[in-house]
Amino acid sequence: MTVYFIGAGPGAADLITVRGARTLARCQVCLYAGSLVPRELLVECPPDARLVDTAQLDLDQITTELVAAHEAGHDVARLHSGDPSVFSAVAEQMRRLDAVGVPYDVVPGVPAFAAAAAALKRELTIPTVGQTVILTRIAQQATPMPDGEDLATLGRSGALLVLHLAARYVDRVVAELLPHYGADCPAAVVAMASRPDELVLRGTLDDIAAQVKAAGVVRTAVIIVGRTLAAAQFPDSHLYSPTRARPCAPGSPPTP
Length: 256
What we know:
The chain is an alpha/beta fold.
């Protein structure tokens, strides 16, 4: 049997992928992050599925559940918020399963930063303004950041920054980025992206911290900082330029 790590998406139940929903529907056991995964998604599970909320479980307990389900001959859905590829703590679960020979697969999901960009109605990469997006966080009451990945170092690039797990420490974020981006640099915070209680805050590094504190945002939010957030005057992408050479479609006459 197989363990499936499934990205549940950023919050809205209908943002799980078709593959994710179909996989969930055939798993006899589902382990889900109760505080982060919408309960509406659980209706996709088989009616007799065993549902396990992992909110109060540690890594050993989660691994025990996964292995036991596998040994009982059941496919297992391990439902994570967002996308398993970033800030999901999936790597250590995979390592445990590798050690005991339990097979697994990964079903990607819609990440929080993509839902935040959709809420802002912005493309994060703009021609000649910014073509790089850095996904990161800060070390506070969590695993330390590796050397060279602190905000001061990353900020020197001037790239668009997306910070997860940092809303509670917005003052620190602003203080570390101001020397590199300037007080007038566009900034935004999206909390509960894609959910009914979604909150979008727009401003600059000069005022975004005050907005966050006034709104009481402390969790389930991403902070986005960078010039592409407010870019208006920029050249069209070369992708659709009339000067770009394009191959002829099958059966079409060659371009003069």
